[in-house]
């Protein structure tokens, strides 16, 4: 395994996060709420470690991290200055992208068929941060997102297999 | 200069006015200052193809060959481009060659091919271009004389054009697409000499070549460029998504991509749920994990040997497809431990299926400590084993889901 590959970076980060999750809460008997809560934390940890593990910062990574932060901060209802700044940065980015999207779709809108636009909007909902991108960039983001998701699934599958043993 | 233009007029050049020429020259100059340049590689290509081009242009080759032109301008986003494109062509096609929109149409095929290739127009270049354009037009006129030769001396070298079909170069894709065959199509009667080597500046271009019979206005060219980009990206996506080779068409591909992304996201959820559920029975110490070592199989693990009764446990997989099913499962009452034995028996059935997925075992990281809490885990076991029959059915579905092979032949 290449020590600096996406897979290994994600694996180390995710395992560290898992240990933290375990360390935080004692292993109590499995009540469904407990498990559900842990599931949410594990999923958040997986997404976060994936977003941090990519070398080139992408739109979807920013969107994922922003969602996670806003969700956690919303619960605590405390906004730190860093969070506000990051939110503003992301808002500015999405605004900028929306402007780009407007300009490109006006000129190139008829190039893509109408039916394709419907599925493209569906894709936008799936890919985080996809709402504010034009079609070309959306396809780029989707490709990168798929690649990262497959890595994530592989690593998590191995971890889960190991746990189940 | 004026007398040349007058002669031009008299020659009934297809509706091109001198005034129009001058206006277009002025506009061109303005445009060129606004051009965006993009493609670096093209310059080297042009430089490399120059010598061949120069060699070829001196001879009177037949109609089968074409000179390769480089378009110095970026066509996308230029509103006035249409006029520029139409300038030398004046709307007619020439001979049987479809590529050159820039070549002035002339049935007698006396036309000059070369154009400057510099994109950043300095004042000098613009003046040169002006002259070239006039010269270009004039070439048609000077059908039999070789006097056009010197007019080409000022020309800058030209560029590379694909003589068939579209040729679009974007940042770095250019090299693979550019066909540097230097076929020259020269006027039949006069031998043109190519200009000297270019002061092609190291600039980037987006070159778009319109196919025969297609519109050449800037909007459709931009559209075409965009569509090309999109189709290239779709091809990359096709490589990423398994089982997409047979699907043609954008809509089908998009649906496939959407399905794949959804399935991947669901897998992540399912796996994190699984880890959450299974983690309750084990503790582990991750800090001591060396990255490069791969553990032996768990069967060799010392802790597993201590608990023979739990031997069935490792091969059991928790199979809820969604969180609701997990909750249902775990909400069931905890059964007494007698069910553990039948649970193990049924669990062993899934061992064979499990072994299919255990190829990933070799790459797991070692856990340095392994603490099994018998009491805690047995209660989990009973809960899990109670629904083992349901689980088995689910397992097969999930197995296919995880594999995600749309083709059934690989199962």
UniProtKB/TrEMBL annotation, chain A:
UniProt key word Transcription: yes
Chain ranges of the IBH1-like N-terminal domain: 4-71
Pfam families hit by this protein: IBH1_N (PF26576)
Keywords in alphabetical order: Transcription, Transcription regulation
Name by which UniProt lists this protein: IBH1-like N-terminal domain-containing protein
Phylogenetic placement of the source organism: Eukaryota, Viridiplantae, Streptophyta, Embryophyta, Tracheophyta
Automatic annotation (TrEMBL), chain B:
Composition bias type Basic and acidic residues, residue spans: 151-176
Main localization, broad class: nucleus
BHLH domain sequence ranges: 214-264
Annotated keywords: Nucleus, Transcription, Transcription regulation
Subcellular locations according to the entry: Nucleus
InterPro entries in the cross-refs: bHLH_dom, bHLH_ZIP_TF, HLH_DNA-bd_sf
Sequence segments annotated as region (Disordered): 142-176
SMART domains per record: HLH
Gene3D superfamilies in alphabetical order: Helix-loop-helix DNA-binding domain
Pfam families: HLH (PF00010)
Source organism superkingdom: Eukaryota
Transcription as UniProt keyword: yes
Classification via PANTHER family: STEROL REGULATORY ELEMENT-BINDING PROTEIN, TRANSCRIPTION FACTOR BEE 2-LIKE ISOFORM X1
Name of the molecule in the record: BHLH domain-containing protein
Lineage: Eukaryota, Viridiplantae, Streptophyta, Embryophyta, Tracheophyta
């Amino acid at each position: 395994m290449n020590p600096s590959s996406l897979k290994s970076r994600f694996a180390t980060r995710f395992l560290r996060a898992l240990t933290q999750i375990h360390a935080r809460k004692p292993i109590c008997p499995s009540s469904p709420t407990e498990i559900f809560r842990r599931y949410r934390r594990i999923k958040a940890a997986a997404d976060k470690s994936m977003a941090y593990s990519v070398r080139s910062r992408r739109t979807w990574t920013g969107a994922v991290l922003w969602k996670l932060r806003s969700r956690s901060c919303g619960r605590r209802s405390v906004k730190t200055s860093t969070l506000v700044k990051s939110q503003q940065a992301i808002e500015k980015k999405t605004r900028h992208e929306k402007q780009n999207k407007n300009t490109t779709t006006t000129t190139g809108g008829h190039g893509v068929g109408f039916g394709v636009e419907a599925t493209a909007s569906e894709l936008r909902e799936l890919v985080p941060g996809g709402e504010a991108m034009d079609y070309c960039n959306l396809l780029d983001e989707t490709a990168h997102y798929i690649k990262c998701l497959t890595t994530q699934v592989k690593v998590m599958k191995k971890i889960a297999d190991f746990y189940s043993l | 200069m004026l007398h040349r233009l007058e002669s031009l007029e008299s020659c009934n050049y297809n509706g091109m006015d001198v005034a129009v020429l001058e206006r277009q020259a002025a506009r061109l100059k303005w445009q060129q200052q606004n051009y965006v340049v993009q493609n670096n590689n093209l310059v080297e290509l042009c430089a490399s193809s120059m010598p061949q081009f120069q060699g070829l242009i001196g001879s009177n080759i037949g109609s089968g060959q074409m000179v390769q032109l480089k378009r110095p301008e970026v066509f996308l986003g230029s509103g006035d481009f249409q006029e520029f494109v139409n300038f030398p062509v004046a709307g007619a096609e020439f001979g049987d060659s479809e590529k050159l929109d820039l070549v002035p149409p002339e049935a007698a095929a006396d036309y000059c091919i070369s154009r400057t290739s510099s994109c950043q127009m300095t004042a000098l270049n613009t003046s040169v271009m002006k002259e070239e354009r006039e010269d270009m037009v004039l070439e048609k006129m000077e059908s039999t004389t070789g006097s056009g030769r010197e007019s080409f001396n000022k020309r800058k070298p030209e560029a590379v054009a694909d003589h068939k079909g579209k040729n679009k170069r974007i940042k770095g894709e250019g090299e693979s697409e550019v066909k540097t065959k230097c076929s020259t199509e020269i006027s039949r009667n006069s031998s043109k000499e190519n200009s000297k080597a270019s002061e092609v500046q190291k600039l980037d271009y987006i070159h778009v070549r319109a196919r025969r019979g297609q519109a050449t206005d800037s909007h459709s060219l931009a559209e075409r460029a965009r569509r090309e980009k999109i189709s290239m990206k779709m091809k990359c996506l096709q490589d990423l998504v398994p089982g997409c080779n047979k699907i043609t068409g954008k809509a089908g591909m998009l649906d496939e991509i959407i399905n794949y992304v959804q399935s991947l996201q669901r897998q992540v959820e399912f796996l994190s749920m699984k880890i959450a559920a299974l983690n309750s029975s084990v503790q582990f110490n991750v800090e001591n994990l060396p990255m490069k070592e791969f553990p032996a199989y768990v069967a060799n693990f010392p802790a597993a040997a201590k608990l023979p009764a739990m031997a069935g446990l490792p091969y059991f997989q928790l199979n809820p497809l969604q969180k609701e099913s997990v909750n249902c499962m775990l909400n069931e009452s905890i059964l007494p431990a007698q069910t553990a034995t039948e649970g193990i028996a049924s669990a062993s059935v899934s061992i064979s299926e499990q072994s299919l997925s255990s190829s990933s075992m070799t790459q797991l990281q070692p856990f340095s400590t392994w603490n099994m809490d018998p009491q805690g885990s047995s209660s989990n076991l009973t809960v899990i084993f109670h629904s083992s029959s349901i689980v088995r059915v689910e397992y097969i579905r999930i197995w296919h889901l995880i594999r995600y092979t749309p083709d059934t032949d690989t199962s």
